Amino acid sequence: LSILLPCNVSVNQVKDAMDQNDDVNYPTVSLVDRVDGQQYVDDVDSACDAAATAKANEGRPSPPVRIDDHVSFDDNGNVSARVLIQTRMCTVRLTPILYHLARALRNECNLVTSSGNSAVPAAQMNDNSIHIPLILACVDKVANLFRIIMLARDYKSQHRLLLVVRDERIRTRLEAEMQKFIAGLDPTDDCGDGIPRIETIEDTVVLLRHECSGKIVAVDLHADALTLDEPSNNQGVDRSALSALQSAGVVIWGFEKDGIPGAID
Asked: What is the pTM of this model?
């Protein structure tokens, strides 16, 4: 990964800042000065031109993310990826594609685009036969509300999205923000039947008792948690996490600050 730095920011400045903070020290990343990286500048400029019609405000996002927009193959079968970060929302929306690309580079899966070059996301995003569980996402912040809606919308699952909030006051505020946000989306890029719901923790518990079918999968930090990554013993990919997700009736993501509420856990 090479990062082309902004104008007036030098490699040494960034390295000095990274050396003072272990949490942001990425030794495998190559930093490139704007002056030294002219070969990258042309690619960035062309990408910006291609995205000129995209709305950069976080509350008025660009059209749905598609793997074809970011991954390409040359005549020799080599894969390259180009990612343009316009808003903070882009980092969230592009994470599934970057994760899938990383797995492909580790030879854990094949990368296929809808044009027929050998990946899974492009084909599956348009496959209406795929089982979509009820998706519960606990949210406090308006910015995270926008990101979660767009991520679900990219994968045509916004109609299965239930946003969980702590109390009725927050529910009222986020409901108004969500309605305004969705009204500002391009109707020609609609990616789902229906819109997400917002419920309090207490109402969510009642809903799960009446509507939950199948197993509930919690996505959280835990010493014994299953992961989608290849095990450290290199004996092949552990399919149990993927199997759990594919057969889940409900998948729950907790709050950013304190995880899944005890009443739901």
From this structure: 0.65
